[in-house]
Every structure is written in C-alpha cells, then in structure tokens.
Recover the amino acids of this structure.
C-alpha cells in the first residue's frame, strides 16, 4: 500500500460546492485547473468538466458518474447527478466535494508527513483471511526488493506499520467445516435441478437464502426456483427471520450450508447462473461492446435469407391484417425491384452479409436463383464440418502431459501481480490452466484489447508449465517486444530461481550460443524470442508450452513451425486484433477461444481524430501534450519518411526534444534510444510502426500517425493502444493526405470504435470485410462467399456439433394468431431498437434466454404493456412449437389447428382432438382467450 496524504489535508485542497453558495465562474475554473481537471472536454470521464452558460458539468475524481451544477444570479441553484448517456437527472444533492485528480497534490512535497490506509479507518474492525499475513510478508519483500528498505518505508506501508495493524486484526482460521451447495449452472437442465433442490430443502425443513450481487440476479433465481423470497438488508436480519425463503444482496463466490438451530442453505447467483451472474466492480466503467449483437442485421444492410437468398433489409413496415389488428413486418428488397414482407420471427433465418450493398448481386424474391448455390455450399459446409469434427476429435485424443503447478510456488508467483484481475482476465486464466491440466494439447486463442492483461495470462500459463518441470517458448514478432517481455518475465520468475533467456537480435552471439545449449540440456526453462525460435539449430529438451504473442504479425508458415516445435505441445495464441482466419477458427470451434473484454479500472477511451496532414496539426498535437508534461509518439509508415519529418517538426516546434527509432538501427541503439524516451529524456518518439507491439509507457498519452492510409486497420488500433495506459485522457491523431472514399471508411471505423475493448470489434469488422478463407487450407472459400462470414461460422459450428443434419432444424414455426404479435411503437419508439429486439428474440434458444430479454426490455423501456406481454408470450409459444415439431399453428374464432413435421405428431387419447394425417384440430371453449385455448390444446397433446 502506498503512503497517502494525511486525512486532514483533504479538506484543505478539495473544493466544496453547495446549493445557495456564491458562484464565480472564473475563480472556480482556475481552482479546478489547479486540481488537475481538463475544462475543454465533455464531462464523460473522471477529470473532465465543461461550462455552458447557466450550467456546468463535471466528472469528479473517483466518482461513478458526472454531475450538473445549475446557477443563476451569482449563486448555485441545484446540484444533480446525471446519466452520462441519456443525460437524465438521477438524484439531487445539497453538496458536492471535488477532489484533486491526484493525491500527490495533497502530499505537499517529498518531506511532508504521510499517512497509511489504516489511518483512514481508525475505528474500523479488521478481519483478515487466513492467508493474508503470508501474502503481506510476500508483498513487503517485493516492495523492498524493488525500491530498497529506506525508500520503501517512505513511500509504502512498512513492516512496523504492518505489525501494529496485525495486533488489531482478527485472522480467520485456515480450516473450517464447509459443505458446498451444488453448482446447478453446470448440469444439463439447471432449472429442473434447482427446483428439485428447493423441494428437497423445503421437505427437510431447511431455510433457503438466495444471495446475489445485483437485484436482477435475485429475480432470475426466483424465476428459476419458482420461489418468492423476502428481501433482507443484512446477514443478521436474514438469520433471525422466520421465513423459509429469504434473499440478500451480497457478492459471494459460492453457496454453502450454514448449520444451526435452523439449518440454512445459502445459494448464490454463481451456483445458479454460472458465468451469467454479475460481479460488479464499482469503480470499473461498464463499457458496452462496439458490437453488442453482431449477428443481428441492421436497416439498409445486405443480408442473406436462408430460404430466399441475398437481399437488402429495407425497413420495418406495419401491415393491416383486418379485424382491427395490424402487424409489423420486415421489408426485404431483392433483384428486379422486387420486395417481400416477412414476419420478425424470420430473423432467425436472416443474417448480416459482409459485402457493401452497392457491390452485391441480389437474388430473386422467390429464391429460384438461390437454392442451387445454397445446395452446393451446404454440401461443402458438411464436408468442412466433418473435417472440423475430425480435427477436434483428434485433438481430444492426442495426449499431452497434465501440467498442474505446485500450489505454494504458483501462489508465490501470482502474489507478485500488483493488480486485481478483471472478471474476463480471471476466466481466461482459469480456461488456460484447465487446458494445461486436461491431458490433451491446448490450442487456445486469447483475444484481449491492448493493455487488458493478456501478458498476465501468458505469465501464469508459463509459470504453471515451468514449475511443473517443462520448458516454455514465448514467440514475439519484434526485437523491441522481445526485450520488454524478457524484462517482465525476469522480474516475475527471478525470485523463484527460474532463468529467462532472450533469443533475438538483441542478444549477443555468445548469449545466443549459451541459450541454445541450455535449451538442449534442459537447464533453461523459459525463453523469449522472435522467429529465431523456429530455427533448425534450436532444440528443446522438454518443451511443454508455446506462446505466440501478437499472432497477427506471423505468417501461416511461421505459426505452423512454432506450434509444431514439439509433439503434443500446448499452444497459446494471443492478439488484440486477431487476423480473420484466427478469429473465425475460434468462433467456429476449430480452436478454443477466450475473450478479455473488461477494461482495467479507470481505463478511458482514446479520443481519436481524423484530419488533413499539415505541419501545424502535427505541432499543435505534440505541443499540447508537452504542456500537460506528457510524451508523444509520432509515427511514419517508412524509414525514409523519418528524417524529412524530423526537419518539419524542428521548424515548427524547435523546443521539442525528439528521439528517432526504426528497425534497421543496431540493437544497442534501439535499446538506448527507447530507454531515453521511457526515462523522460525526450518529449517525442519519432518512429516507424516498430513501436506497435507491447510497449507500456504511462506518460505517453498522445500519438500522431502520419499517412494512416498506408497502415492496416489492426496496425492502427495497435498503435493507438500505445497511449492511454496510465488512466490519463489520451489522444490519437490520424493525419491523412488521402481523399479516397474507401480510406475514409476505414479510418472512420477507428473513430467509431474508440472505447476500451474495441480491438475485438475491429477484428469482427475485418472478418466481415475481408472474409476468412478456408480454415483447412490456404484457399479462399466459395461457400463463405455464398453465406457470408457470420452465417458461415454459425452453420459450420452447428454442422460439426450435430452431424450431416445440422441444418435440418433451421426453420421457424408459422403462427397465425388473433393478436398483433409486435412491440407497440408507442412503447419502443425507435425502429432500429425494435428491429434489434426482434432479432435477439429470434436468436433465443431457450425460455431462460427469452425471460432474460423480457426483463431487460422492461428495465430499458418500463413496465410491459399488454400488447408487449402478448408479443413475448407468442415468442415463448414459437419455441414450444419448434420443440414439438409444429410447423404451423392457426388460432381462429372456432378452433385451434396445428400442422406437424412428418412423423412428429404422436397419438393422443383425447377425444376432443380431430386428426387428419399430420394435422390436428381442437374445438374448445370459444369464449376463452387465445392463449388459454392454446394452453388447453397443448395439454391435450401431452396426454
């Protein structure tokens, strides 16, 4: 723990705003600037503020959202918290405390007296887990090794402070009786198993306590259990209550049995919902993915309808059905100015197509031009699916050592990671460790944006393997990245006595000879290198794991060599922007896929601006960063561009300190120049894209890319990821001389996807635009061109899982109901949002999925009106009909009729059912409501 300012110092430096207090804009703006706030930006992120006439908005340091201050007549009239997206008022406040952007402003110099975190919790009761004392000793040793005893005592909590704190601390016992509740999320029918468990608990007289971190999860648990649980404020209230069922908001990892006079079974959201359970991190910004629903088509987009072919999705259109009812249909435009209206349920058969609408040859509306192409493509997909299933089965059959690291040594290694893992990062680590212990070769892709923690996943995988006695090879594309990874790995592995060597151009000839010899004799466990690792004279004694970082920079042949360095070797691929073939392989199941989409706490979007290239624009961007006491990257596509660019910048901004870097420099010069920039001896690093991979320089928060049209989309995203690593607002300027429409579209993608986590979305867009080719060869795949990459991946995965008849269930029941069967336009007003909801409903496979979406809709738009309830009831009915094999269901004023798939209609003893081949008719209570009659009909079918 770092030392902090004295608690009393905050009142001296913080700014307090109160309703009815005097207001002077110029004075307030000056004080806020001194606290480190940027007054020229919308209040979207901590540290930003913007004045607008009679109001100003500010996002204070450490706050979870922005605030709006209204003023008039020289006084503050109102202080409100506002929604950052919709700008609606959340709640009113009488006072707002604005803290400095850095606690260092409150420290008052190096010699000022400092506090520790316990000083802020003077009257708190301290309870620690059994392992905390050992972890604390490990942390203190790590800090002393890195900073020296004297510096560590001044900057961090010292051993003396820790001893004082331990005297006030209650340490929990290392072992205690523990009986876990079942993990329902991992069984085939979670709802059924959960309900059976609840019934058993009730019959045994035990109390049930549902525990979840958010109210939505508690409601989901109630739905799945069929129980309404009373809410309690805390554990004491829940323990004293007489009710058999209770619910509590708390974030528990797993459920347990609590003995006592009234035995209590504690069931958590993780037990029931698995990975769908929410574990909020209050200070983490909940970014929405750039593609929340990539398989849902949008208006104006090119689409493929499985029964009709290629079309344009024009719009939603309301059609009068007679009898006072109307329905919303989807208008598809085909060749020859033909159009077809299809129901929203058909979105189960409609998928986005990659091509731009203007470059597309549309099919005829009747599907006559489509079926031949579809038939040939489906045959190819079936063949590819058999190959894929064979590949997966072979991989499962291939044996590899079960690698499980010794617990204590591995825990010591993990303890040296100075941050909390994010949810996605922790899951990726679990996935990798499970793969290593499974007994067959791992082949996993980890996709995570720049700075989201892929390196820690690699470090822990390497630790598990090296501590199990096997060797690890880490392949990187550049010498610069090899150098940085070697330093990172040595810091973490050094205290465990495990040597890490460098096999790249940065190492001397003697070092390379020594490394090769140690690899042959098994004296070296971990090596980091470039393509040199695949050289014929590099021999491993006992290679267990190959990690390929930034896989998009390696060619197919290089990757094949690296992943084949030893028989039965585990392979871990890592990338922020994987190439389309790698991403498609993960999506289709050819490789296992882990996605790290959760940004680190306080990671901000990078402001991305596209502008014409000019000397003034370059100088303005670089000088602005210098005024913030930060550093900048200036990137050119070619080595020969660097000297002319240096001259241009020196002319317009002579005070800037600039260092030049490119790949043809000697390795020693690259290291020296890079280190001079890292240590703050230069304001600007002028370089080629050699800096694209892996560099972590928190003070660098501006990047200027000249001629960005000469870089690939993923390269630009990687370059942009070099800045914004330290929680400071960062800027990326793409300065172009191109006027082409295609270039503008490509650069616009980067402007659109500027939030943390955008790398995966950019790869998906790249997959759409470029296609994937054949997963099993270097050919471009014809069937992919027929279906488009999104539908192709879906069909291939289904076919490989289900065999040759994988596409047999790609049909939608036709429901003819006396209801509107649409979302009311007065309830969800946006056509685009209604289309999104229709698409998501069409993709629902289970009632649980549908109930989750129904709950989400109610949260977004308010309580469902009757027409919307009927719409979701019809969606549930459609799922039921598909499960039963009912192709068409007609509900009229006189009867209910169902037409079944051939062979799916079972015999029924019900006398009120009239059967004619695969069609059955039910004449029931004509006065009953439609869904009541349908329910009676389905019950009779089940008899």
């Amino acid at each position: 723990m770092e030392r902090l300012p004295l608690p009393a110092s905050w009142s001296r430096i913080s700014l307090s705003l109160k309703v009815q207090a005097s207001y002077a804009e110029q004075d307030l703006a000056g004080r806020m600037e001194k606290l480190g706030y940027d007054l020229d930006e919308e209040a979207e992120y901590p540290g930003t503020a913007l004045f607008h006439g009679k109001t100003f908005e500010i996002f204070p340091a450490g706050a979870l959202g922005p605030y709006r201050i209204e003023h008039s007549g020289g006084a503050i009239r109102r202080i409100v918290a506002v929604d950052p997206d919709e700008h609606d008022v959340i709640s009113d406040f009488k006072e707002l405390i604005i803290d400095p952007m850095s606690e260092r402003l409150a420290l008052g110099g190096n010699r000022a007296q400092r506090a520790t975190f316990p000083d802020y919790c003077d009257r708190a009761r301290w309870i620690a887990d059994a392992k905390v004392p050992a972890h604390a000793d490990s942390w203190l040793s790590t800090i002393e090794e890195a900073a020296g005893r004297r510096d560590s005592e001044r900057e961090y909590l010292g051993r003396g402070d820790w001893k004082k704190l331990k005297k006030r601390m209650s340490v929990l016992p290392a072992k205690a009786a523990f009986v876990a509740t079942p993990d329902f999320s991992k069984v085939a029918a979670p709802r059924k198993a959960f309900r059976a468990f609840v019934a058993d608990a009730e019959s045994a007289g035990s109390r049930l306590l549902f525990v979840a971190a958010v109210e939505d999860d508690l409601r989901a648990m109630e739905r799945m259990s069929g129980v309404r649980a009373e809410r309690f404020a805390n554990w004491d209230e829940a323990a004293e209550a007489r009710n058999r069922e209770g619910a509590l908001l708390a974030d528990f990892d797993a459920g347990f049995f609590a003995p006592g006079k009234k035995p209590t079974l504690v069931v958590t959201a993780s037990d029931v919902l698995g990975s769908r359970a929410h574990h909020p991190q209050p200070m983490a910004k909940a970014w929405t993915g750039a593609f929340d629903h990539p398989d849902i088509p949008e208006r104006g987009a090119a689409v493929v309808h499985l029964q009709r072919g290629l079309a344009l999705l024009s719009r939603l259109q309301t059609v009068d059905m007679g009898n006072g009812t109307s329905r919303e249909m989807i208008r598809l435009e085909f060749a020859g100015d033909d159009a077809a209206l299809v129901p929203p349920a058909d979105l189960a058969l409609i998928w986005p197509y990659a091509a731009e609408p203007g470059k597309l040859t549309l099919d005829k509306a009747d599907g006559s031009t489509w079926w031949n192409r579809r038939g040939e493509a489906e045959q190819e997909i079936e063949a590819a699916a058999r190959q894929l299933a064979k590949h997966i089965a072979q991989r499962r059959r291939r044996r590899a050592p079960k690698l499980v690291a010794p617990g204590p040594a591995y825990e010591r290694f993990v303890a040296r990671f100075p941050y909390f893992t994010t949810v996605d990062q922790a899951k990726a680590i679990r996935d990798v460790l499970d793969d290593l212990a499974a007994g067959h070769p791992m082949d996993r892709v980890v996709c995570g944006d720049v700075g989201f923690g892929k390196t820690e996943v690699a470090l822990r995988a390497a630790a598990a393997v090296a501590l199990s006695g096997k060797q690890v090879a880490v392949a990187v594309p550049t010498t610069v990245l090899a150098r940085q990874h070697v330093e990172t790995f040595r810091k973490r592995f050094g205290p465990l006595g495990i040597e890490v060597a460098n096999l790249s151009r940065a190492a001397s000839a003697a070092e390379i000879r020594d490394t090769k010899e140690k690899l042959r004799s098994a004296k070296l466990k971990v090596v980091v290198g470039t393509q040199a690792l695949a050289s014929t004279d590099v021999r491993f004694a006992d290679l267990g794991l190959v990690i390929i970082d930034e896989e998009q920079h390696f060619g197919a042949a290089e990757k094949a060599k690296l992943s084949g360095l030893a028989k039965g070797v585990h392979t871990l691929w890592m990338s922020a922007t994987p190439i389309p073939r790698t991403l498609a392989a993960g999506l289709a199941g050819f490789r296992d896929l882990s996605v790290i989409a959760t940004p680190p706490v306080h990671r901000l979007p990078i402001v991305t601006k596209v502008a014409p290239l000019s000397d003034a624009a370059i100088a303005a961007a670089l000088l602005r960063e210098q005024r913030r006491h930060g550093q900048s990257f200036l990137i050119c596509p070619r080595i020969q561009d660097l000297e002319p660019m240096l001259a241009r910048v020196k002319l317009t901004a002579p005070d800037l300190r600039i260092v030049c870097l490119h790949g043809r420099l000697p390795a020693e010069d690259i290291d020296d120049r890079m280190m001079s920039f890292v240590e703050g001896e230069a304001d600007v690093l002028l370089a080629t894209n050699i800096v694209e991979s892996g560099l972590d320089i928190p003070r660098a928060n501006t990047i200027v890319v000249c001629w960005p049209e000469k870089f690939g989309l993923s390269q630009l995203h990687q370059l942009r990821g070099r800045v914004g690593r330290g929680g400071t607002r960062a800027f990326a300027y793409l300065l172009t001389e191109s006027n082409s429409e295609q270039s503008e579209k490509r650069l616009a993608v980067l402007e659109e996807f500027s939030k943390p986590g955008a790398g995966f979305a950019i790869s998906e867009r790249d997959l759409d635009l470029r296609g994937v080719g054949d997963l099993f060869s270097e050919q471009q795949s014809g069937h992919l061109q027929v279906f488009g990459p999104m539908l192709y991946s879906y069909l291939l995965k289904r076919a490989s899982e289900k065999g040759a008849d994988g596409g047999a269930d790609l049909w939608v029941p036709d429901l003819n109901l006396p209801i509107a069967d649409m979302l009311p336009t007065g309830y969800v007003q946006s056509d685009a949002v209604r289309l999104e909801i229709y698409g998501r409903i069409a993709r629902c496979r289970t009632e649980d999925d549908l109930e989750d979406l129904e709950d989400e809709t109610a949260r977004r738009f308010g309580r469902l009106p009757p027409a919307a309830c009927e719409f979701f009831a019809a969606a549930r009915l459609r799922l039921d009909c598909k499960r039963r094999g009912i192709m068409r269901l007609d509900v009229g004023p006189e009867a209910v009729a169902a037409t079944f798939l051939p062979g799916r209609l079972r015999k029924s003893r019900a006398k009120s059912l009239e059967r004619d081949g695969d069609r059955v008719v039910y004449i029931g209570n004509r006065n009953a409501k439609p869904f009541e009659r349908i329910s009676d009909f389905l019950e009779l079918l089940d008899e």
